[in-house]
Amino acid sequence: MSFVKLSASALAIAAVSATAAMARDNIQSAGSSTVLPYATIVAEAFGENFDFPTPVVESGGSGAGRKKLCEGVGENTIDIANSSSRISQSDIDLCKSNGVTEIMEVRFGYDGIVFASDIKGPTFAFTPADWYAALAAKVVKDGKLIDNPNKTWSDVRADLPNQPILAFIPGTKHGTREVFDEKVVHAGCKATGAEEAFIAAAGGDKAAGKKGCMTLRTDGVSVDIDGDYTETLARIDANKTAIGVFGLSFYQNNMDKLVVATMSGVTPSVDSVANGSYPVSRPLYFYVKKAHLGVIPGLKEYIEFFVSDDMAGPNGPLAAYGLVSDPELAKTQEAVAAETPMGPLN
Amino acid sequence: MTDATASVHGSLFQADARTRRRRAAETRFRAYGLGAVILSVLALVFLLSSVLGNGTGAFRQSVIRLEITLDPAIVAPKGTDPEALAKVTTIGYGRLLDQEVIAELTAKGIDTAGMSAKDISAMLSKEAAADLRRMVLADPSLIGQTITFDAFANGRIDGYFKGRVTMESAALDSNVSPAQLLLAERMRDAGLLRLAFNPGFLTAPDASELRPEVAGLGVAILGSAYMMMIVLVLALPLGVAASIYLEEFAPKNKLTDLIEVNISNLAAVPSIVFGILGLAIFINFAGLPQSAPIVGGLVLTLMTLPTIIISTRAALKAVPPSIRDAALGVGASKMQAIFHHVLPLAMPGILTGTIIGLAQALGETAPLLLIGMVAFVRDFPAAPPEGFFDPASALPVQVYNWTTRADPAFMERASGAIIVLLVFLVAMNAVAIVLRRRFERRW
Q1: Which of A4, A266, B200, B223 is the most buried (most CB within 10 A)?
Q2: Mean pLDDT for chain A?
Q3: Between these two residues, B10 and B295, which has the higher pLDDT value?
Q4: What ipTM was reported for this prediction?
Q5: Does A254 touch chain B if contact means CB atoms closer than 8 Å?
Q6: Which one of B136, B209, B231, B308 makes the best mutation probe of the A interface by having the most chain A beta carbons within 10 Å?
């Protein structure tokens, strides 16, 4: 009984409030927790310097944000989706079926992914091949695929410290994991020539070979972290011998607790990511619903402000927080000013 | 004991084996109970001491007092009409601070050797430039004058005076240098820098990751208050009406039983389910705005309703039937009997249940995740009723938000927010206890 009454009254309230809900004057965005700190920094500065309300920024993950963007056009849908990975064809199709035909893709910078361990422990110098040999479910030994026997880092490569392997890596819902799989594990698999063994084992199937490369062992040596980097940090605090995967900006905020490992001899920093010598990095994007430009006040000004040199430039506050500035920022600025929608994915 | 007959006809003063066993069992049981109590008290003490130890720092903040000359060349390069003034962004004011802070320190005779103007102004919160800009826009006559200006110290400098940052950690940290900490010490000795009570923690809005020192709970407290208002206004009348009907009027049949069972079930449904429901009904179907207290309030109403109905029905049941019979006996209608006699006597119980339900709703985070209230919101919502539709945050959400931030300074603020939340909860529960003690009647 109460439920019937309740839904009736809720609908009544909704009907009354429909008029009030119509005129939204603040920008709403949602998505990647990696992009969140950058988006909040820009939103804060935007609210301070412009006559528009401060945009509302939600987190929730890249995929969830893009799905929300594609829910449709109208004031009760979001304007911007923040994303730490590129939009997929299935998202674009979903958007189209809901009437969101024009999306602007804005790449505003790069983010480095670093490997770090407790500050009191030894320092590591990794190569992607080390990570493949340490974490993959199957490795090649004497030309045959066998279950991964490596227990310590010195088993992986003799000049690494003699410390048990334990890695906290981002869970599969994170965009960071995709980069880790692609640019570290898969790259290492390729470099050691193990990928060919996998392809041969799968009867020449390349996709299966790649999948074999990126299948990680499940004997507790690699631990998926579904929470944020703060959780990874707490786990490393409790497990001093573990190695965690972090975003460059997170590491830069916790340099007194973590020591960073080099990758293929390069120390991760804003500079080494920017010039491409540090291999593990990824672009950061936000996606704008073009139909909302000119409808939601301040939206155009906000995205122009986001990619301006004052914000996303190499000396701006985003770079100070750990964003690797995009060398082609000027091109992005032009595209934003011209409101160019994105073309089909290539 | 050695003799079988002695244990049957033994002395009353000498306990036999079975009595001793029974007594031992009783002693053991008491020890278990006491142990359980001690364990839970220890857990509470541990929780409170960790929260209080981490969180009290959030109520005090390092403040730097500066004399600043508002140089017209930077602040008003194109004249002082409001439009031209608004064109100067906080980046411009940042340059003003670069220039003024080093001049001020030199004038006060504080040694700044080896540090650039940027290093020194980086010790101030990034909010300082925004504050200055607001002051100038509000009162353009300040331009060209020298004003006394209180700026928060940067989160790391503040952490140094609270023991979170040390010289050793600063040496490893790219965001602060030991030279800056030494300068901060000299500034404190000269009386420029002090730790002061920070009312902004309760009144200011959230801040981005670059400015942990100015982040506050203002929007979250307001958002939680709005939601509680909505829950109270909707859930109390609905819940009471439903329980009176079910308890006093409803025919006893299968349908009523089914409804009763379902209400008890609803009370045990995980709160995230109400969030999913809220997203589907209130946002996607009814088209209410995201991140707004109205949606949060409606979802929490759904969640609180079963609690209120169950406690109201218990309170109504506790009123003895003789009261109803007496009222009906002197010719009152059923409704008069209920509203004049039963309901007033059940009121303390109903209010207690309502307050406990509200306290539960106040601490709820999971359903708010789905309706977009776990967000970065800096603008205060307007006064109700329009404010119910503006974006806002909520207290437990703010705690969650701050624990996921990279800067360790946010840990302190999250603990501070927990303290505020606990104070609200304790106050509400205390009111519930007082109501029960004062007004509840037992028969």
Answers
A1: B223
A2: 86
A3: B295
A4: 0.83
A5: yes
A6: B209
Domain ranges of chain B: 4-55, 60-199, 218-439
The answer, for B172 touching chain A at a CB cutoff of 8 Å, is yes
Contact flag A58-B374 (C-beta cutoff 8 Å): yes
Q: In this complex, is the C-beta atom of A224 within 8 Å of any C-beta atom belonging to chain B?
A: no
**Over the stretch A111-156, which tens digit does the pLDDT of each residue have?**
889 999 998 888 899 999 899 989 988 888 877 888 888 889 988 8
DSSP B316-381: HHHS-HHHHHHHHHTT--HHHHIIIIIHHHHHHHHHHHHHHHHHHHHT--HHHHHTT-SEE--SPP
Question: B283 touching A, CB under 8 A?
Answer: yes
Query: Touching check for A311 and chain B: CB below 8 Å?
Result: no
- Domains in chain A, ordered, with CATH? 22-111+283-337 (3.40.190.10), 112-281 (3.40.190.10)
pLDDT of B218 strictly over 90: yes
Kindly report the number of other CB atoms within 10 A of residue B216's CB atom. Answer: 22
Test the A interface: residue of B208, B261, B310 with most A CBs within 10 Å = B208
CB spacing of A10 vs B281 below 8 angstroms: yes
CB A62 within 8 A of CB A82: yes
Does the pLDDT value for residue A10 go beyond 80?
A: no
What are the backbone dihedrals phi and psi of residue B260, each rounded to the nearest 5 degrees, phi first? -60, -45
Best-predicted range by mean pLDDT among A297-306, B175-184, B281-290? A297-306
pTM, full prediction? 0.85
Query: Does residue A15 register a pLDDT over 50?
Result: no
| Res A272 pLDDT > 50 | yes
Residues 360-379 of B with CB under 8 A from A: 369, 372, 374-379
Proportion of chain A in helix, strand, coil states, percent, rounded to 5: 45, 20, 35
Are residues B295 and B277 in contact, defined by beta-carbon separation less than 8 angstroms?
no
Q: Identify the residue among A2, A3, A311 best suited for mutation to test binding to B, counting B beta carbons within 10 A and taking the highest.
A: A2
- CA A287: distance to chain centroid? 14
- CATH number given to B218-439: 1.10.3720.10
CA-to-CA separations, A228 to A67, A234, A246, B246, B368, in angstroms, rounded: 21, 10, 9, 47, 19
In A, residues 33-72, which contact B (CB 8 Å cutoff)? 33, 36-37, 39-41, 43-45, 47-49, 51, 53-54, 56-60, 71
Does pLDDT of A18 surpass 70? no
Of the CA atoms within 13 Å of residue A156, those in its CB half-sphere come to 25
Taking residues B263-277, what's their average pLDDT? 90
Residue A230 contacts B where some CB pair is shorter than 8 Å: yes
pLDDT at A5: 53
pLDDT digits (tens, 9 = 90+) for B348-388: 889 989 999 999 999 888 899 888 888 899 889 988 888 89
Chain B residues within an 8 Å CB radius of A227:
404
- Residues in chain A within 8 Å Cβ distance of B262: 3
8 A C-beta contact, residue A301 and residue A52? yes
